[in-house]
């Protein structure tokens, strides 16, 4: 499982491409699906910006799992993997916007990305446990992997990091560009009424 996680970690920027191809091939957006999906995807992007504003550009590495800080502030005080939750929301939102093969493609994508991030998290948690030891053990006991908790993180493991919106936006530049381009493509199909493969 760890080897699979290392593979997904390295190539996580490319793993959505087959699903995006299918989404465009069977695209069939409606005004309702576009609005709902846009809200879900944009919420996911906001979670990513909030997360990266604390974690910094280290989240962009593709070589191996790691980090110089155990981040326990901001969204990391509510759940341990806010970036991956944000990603899943973005992909789910884009799938809803496109209305492609709804709901089958969206359900498959949800399972696919959950498995991908589950294997990546195993790899990352091995690194965090070996690097931050007791602090990470305590953090795991206080904060869930994916389901947000609203209890306070113990003061002894609270990271002393400042939220940096500028760095968050800078680090998210590629994600924001991809989000805008994908949304524009879906909007084009919505307005034009063009369908590549009609199955409805």
Tell me about this structure.
With 200 residues, the chain is mainly alpha-helical. The chain has a single domain (2-192), classed as Four Helix Bundle (Hemerythrin (Met), subunit A). It is built from seven helices and no strands. Helix 3 (31-55) runs antiparallel to helix 4 (82-98). The N and C termini lie far apart (39 Å).
Mean pLDDT, as a whole number?
Answer: 91
Secondary structure tally, helices: 7
Low-confidence spans: pLDDT under 50, at least 5 residues? none
Total strands: the figure is: 0
Major beta sheet, specifics? none
**CA-CA gap between termini:** 39 Å
Q: Using the coordinates above, name the CATH class.
A: Mainly Alpha
Structural class based on helices, strands and sheet pairing: mainly alpha
How many separate structural domains? 1
> In sequence order, what are the helices and strands, one letter per element?
HHHHHHH
């Amino acid at each position: 499982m760890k080897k699979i996680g290392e593979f997904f970690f390295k190539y996580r920027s490319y793993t959505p491409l087959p699903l995006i191809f299918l989404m465009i091939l069977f695209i069939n957006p409606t005004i309702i699906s576009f609005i709902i999906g846009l809200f879900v995807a944009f919420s996911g992007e906001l979670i990513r910006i909030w997360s990266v504003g604390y974690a910094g550009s280290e989240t962009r590495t593709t070589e191996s799992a790691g980090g110089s800080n155990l981040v326990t502030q901001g969204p990391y005080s509510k759940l341990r993997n806010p970036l991956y939750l944000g990603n899943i929301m973005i992909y789910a939102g884009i799938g809803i916007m496109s209305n492609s093969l709804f709901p089958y493609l969206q359900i498959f994508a949800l399972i696919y990305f959950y498995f991908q991030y589950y294997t990546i998290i195993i790899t990352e948690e091995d690194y965090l446990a070996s690097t931050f030891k007791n602090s990470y053990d305590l953090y795991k006991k206080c904060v869930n992997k994916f389901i947000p908790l609203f209890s306070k993180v113990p003061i002894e493991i609270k990271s002393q990091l400042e939220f940096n919106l500028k760095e968050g936006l800078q680090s998210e530049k590629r994600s924001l560009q991809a989000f805008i381009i994908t949304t524009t493509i879906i909007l084009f199909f919505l307005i034009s009424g063009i369908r590549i493969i009609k199955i409805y």
